[in-house]
Amino acid sequence: MLDRIFHLSEAHTTVKSELIAALTTFVSLSYILFVNPNILHAAGINKGAAFTVTAVATAIGCFLMGLIANYPIALAPTLGSAAFFAYNVVIGMHINWQTALASVLVASFLFILITVLKLREKVVDAIPKDIKYAISAGIGLFIAFIGLQNGKLIVNNSSSLVGLGSFGNSDVWLTLFGLILTIILMAARVPGSIFIGMIITAIFGMCIGQIPLPHGIISTAPSMAPTFGHAIFHLKDINTPQLFMVVLTFLLVTFFDTAGTLIGMTQQAGMVDKNGKIPRIGKAFLSDSLAMVEGAICGTAPLGTSVESSAGIAMGGRTGLTAVFVGILFLISMIFSPLLAVIPTTVTAPALIIVGVLMANNLKYINWDRFEIAFPAFLVVVGMPLTYSISDGLALGMIAYPITMIASKRYKDVSPMMYALFVIFIAFFLITNMK
């Protein structure tokens, strides 16, 4: 039966191989259960509810990807989108988290619409690959910057804006312990390095008395009631130009991140045909669109394709059965919610920094030899961390690209879609940054 559903024989894989791949992906991705709630908590969302929502939304997303698209790829809340949700929209724009979730839900419906109309494939073809890589790398630097701040390695400085944290702060030493440990594990190519690093760091913190001991390990999962359904109840709040631009930015940021990751994962799994076409890509896009809807209703930032899926693919995952197994493992993980209460940002900070490094890998694919391409890509990459805004960094690059291409007499190489985005992002700046 499983062979008939997931075409295991055709993909030259077995149930055992898919299970091993799923375990690898889960161990690599499970840090999201602790990191995502910490980020959402900064936006005012109940941490316990965020833990359960993260597990449930990820499980459903994996089931959708596995059963609809038959891809060995996990769908989970992405740290880039979570960071934009919490630090840019809620904290930066002073929008309550309920309305921000409603913005995610509207963006999700638009996602479904453009997927059904097959516009997503057309947009993928229209956006220059260098800009796509720059977006992913820029989000990585932004995430790493947040991790450095959360770990107190980088702090505010009145004379130079930012500076090195004090080594007299015990939080700095705990972060350094976790970071060095995780670096060693990653360099040694130990499966699940990020998750193992977090666990050992937390245990070390408890041993030295910096982290309080949990009251238990296994417990009933916290209720999703504090977040469930608020996205629907607050749809009526999406009534200002600023919020419409938030919706558009959620749409664009999540789209580019998911599209780029999907391309990378399918290439790794050997799914791309000789003509460069990706089979069932429309179903994969539909899967993540539906996952965004269920995630917003449950109460989390947008779900997207997980880069940690590459670990499972490397272990032999080739079909959607891998994704389904990952979803099951996330449902089982909910009983470990008491551990969440004692996990501080100093423990999760190394994970953010390391994930930032992994995402920055895309810098090598940018054509730095052509200034007309390098400059807008550079603006995207440095704009996100320096403006502390994914949307602002994205807009800077999208505005600069048509200008540099026209100046270099390559205006015919710019697609109509890019000219349209040029206008849209200028309007975005005028609406959101006028004082």
From TrEMBL:
Q: What is its main location?
A: membrane
- Extract the Pfam families matched here: Xan_ur_permease (PF00860)
The answer to whether UniProt assigns keyword Cell membrane to this entry is yes
What do the Gene Ontology cellular component annotations say? Answer: plasma membrane
What membrane topology is given? Multi-pass membrane protein
**InterPro entries given for it?**
Azg-like (IPR045018), Azg-like_bact_archaea (IPR026033), NCS2 (IPR006043)
Q: Which GO terms describe its molecular function?
A: purine nucleobase transmembrane transporter activity
State which residue ranges cross the membrane: 20-43, 49-68, 101-119, 131-150, 170-188, 195-213, 243-264, 311-332, 339-361, 373-396, 417-434
> Where is this protein found?
Cell membrane
Which keywords does the record carry?
Cell membrane, Membrane, Transmembrane, Transmembrane helix, Transport
Family recorded in the similarity comment: Belongs to the nucleobase:cation symporter-2 (NCS2) (TC 2.A.40) family. Azg-like subfamily.
What's this protein's name?
A: NCS2 family permease
> Which species is listed as the source?
Limosilactobacillus fastidiosus
